[in-house]
Amino acid sequence: MRFLAPLILGVAVSACTAAPPAETAQIVAAQQAKLADLTAGKIAGPPQSCLNTYHQNDMVVIDDNTIAFRQGRQRVYVNHMMGPCSNLASGGNALVTKTTTTQLCRGDIAQIFDTSIKMTVGSCSFGDFVPYSAPGYRG
Known about the structure:
Elements lengths: L3 H14 L4 H18 L3 E2 L5 E3 L5 E6 L2 E6 L3 E6 L12 E5 L5 E3 L3 E6 L4 E7 L3 E5 L6
Antiparallel strand pairs: 1-10, 2-7, 3-4, 4-5, 5-10, 6-8, 8-9
């Protein structure tokens, strides 16, 4: 019995430090490529605490922590959520916000809505909105 304890501990520790499966690595690489594609050739501006609602029409989910809002081809706003929006990037889920103003702001809470079972399955909070603009863009 004394010999089993170190063996069990060793197995538990190695399970925690194992490399992620190849499928997970491919998903992460695809998400990073999606963000790189959206920001390619654009320059990051100073973070903004709010985004006007008319810039929110073209939302792109990068991963459970990152959402982008496209404003045409010239500008994209990237938001790194304050805490993950669990399962948002898995598909079949929608991000639902309720605002009483014409802006979406840092700290506003969004709900994750599972469209297949038609119920809220989580929530998260927006961080700052970082604009990425094409050089010379004045919009």
